[in-house]
Amino acid sequence: MSNWKKTLKEIFDEDVLKKKRREAESKGKIRVKKFIADVVEPAFEEIANELQEYDRDIDVETEAMSATIRVFHEGSEEFYFSIRSRPYRQKEFSFPVLPLKDEKGDQYRAEVFLKDGPLYHDVTNYTKEQIIEEFLHEYKRHMQWNL
Asked: Which one of 8, 69, 124, 136 is most buried, by most CB atoms within 10 A?
C-alpha cells in the first residue's frame, strides 16, 4: 500500500480516531485542571485574604475541575462565585478530529458561575489578575443590587 493510501486509511480508521479523541479529551481536561490549580486557586486565596480585612468570612473550595469562593457577612452568605469546567458541543467540520474535543464532540473550557447560574463566557486563558477583576466586577454588581 502506498504511503498516502495508508495515511488516508488511518484518518478513517476507527481505532485511530478513538485514540485521538481520548488524547484530545485528556488535553482539554488537563488544560482546565492546570488553569484551576495555577491561576484560579491563587486568585481566590488572594481575594480571601483581602476580604478578611473587611470583616468577611470566606470559604474557598477547590476540586480538580472547579473552584468556588463564598463570601459571608454576619453569618449569611453574601456572595457566591465559582469557576467550573464545562463541556461544549462544537459544530461539525470536515476534519475528523479537532483539538481539545472528546469522543462526544465536546470541548472543555472554564466558565464563571454565580448563585443564579453560569455567565457563559470562557475565562480559561485569563490571568490571575483578570480572575480577580472578574470577581470584583461581579461582587460590586451584586452589592449594588443588594444595598
From this structure: 69
